[in-house]
Amino acid sequence: MPLKVIGAGQGRTGTHSLKLALEQLGLGPCHHMVEVIEHPEQYPYWERAFEDQPVDWEEVYRGYNSAVDAPTCLVYRELAERYPDAKIILTLRDPELWWRSVSATIMSPDVWSGERMAQHPMARLGPKIGGFRMRRGYQPFPRNDRDAAIEDFQRHNEEVRKVIPPERLLVYEVSQGWDPLCNFLGLPVPNEPFPHSNTSEQFRARVLAMDAQNSGGN
After folding, report:
1. Are 59 and 31 in contact (CB under 8 A)?
2. Cα 183 to Cα 77: distance, rounded to the nearest angstrom
3. How many other CB atoms are found less than 10 A from the CB of residue 36?
4. What is the pTM of this model?
């Protein structure tokens, strides 16, 4: 099935909340990094994508109506071209708050110790994603450089605005709730509260739970 919504926003901009919101609006299942972690059979597809090899996107997103977060946001241009009727959502966040969040989660040396990263399913894709980013002029993973990370973050957001026609793009903060999202998608506003999930605390708790699972609960 063709993707109906493509998320171009980077991780820690409310992408997991957006995933839940899209699914609540009937645009799920929504692909997210958690799906890659839970379905390692997807790895060969993404390895090919990040090595600039041909990829069958219908195979990658089989069963999904929408996709957000990494790795989707890294290939938003290819996906926007492949699915010309899909709408694109760029999730934003204050750059300083974004940096604090990534520093405490996806770029944290505390969270991703060498041993833990070696055991993590995404370890296989990390170097390939880094090389892919470098070929596009970005730094691989500026974990310890606030200024470089924020520069890359803002550059990506500006690039999305330039590449995607404005009538096809929603620039959005999840703190805005349902109204701009539903107006953009042409869907009624649900009666339920907008979902908010995957805080820094929840992220770190999930990593610790992964440790427990990998060690057999000991």
Report:
1. no
2. 23
3. 22
4. 0.89
Q: What is the pLDDT of residues 94-136, one digit of tens each?
A: 999 999 988 887 776 665 555 655 556 567 788 898 899 999 9
Residues 43-62 have pLDDT tens digits of: 999 999 999 999 999 999 99
Straight-line distance from the first to the last Cα atom of the chain, in angstroms, rounded to the nearest whole number: 42
Q: Report the alpha-carbon distance of residue 25 to residue 189 in Å, rounded.
A: 8
Helix (H, G, I), strand (E, B) or coil at 135: helix
Q: Tell me which residue of 129, 113, 120, 108 sits closest to 47, measured CA to CA.
A: 129
CA distances from 200 to 14, 32, 106, 112, 177 (A): 11, 17, 9, 14, 20
Burial of residue 70, with CB atoms counted within 10 A of its CB: 0-12 exposed, 13-18 middle, 19 or more buried: buried
The angle formed by the CA atoms of residues 145, 147 and 152, to the nearest 5 degrees, is 95
Task: Give one DSSP letter per residue of 142-157, joined into a string.
Answer: -TT-HHHHHHHHHHHH
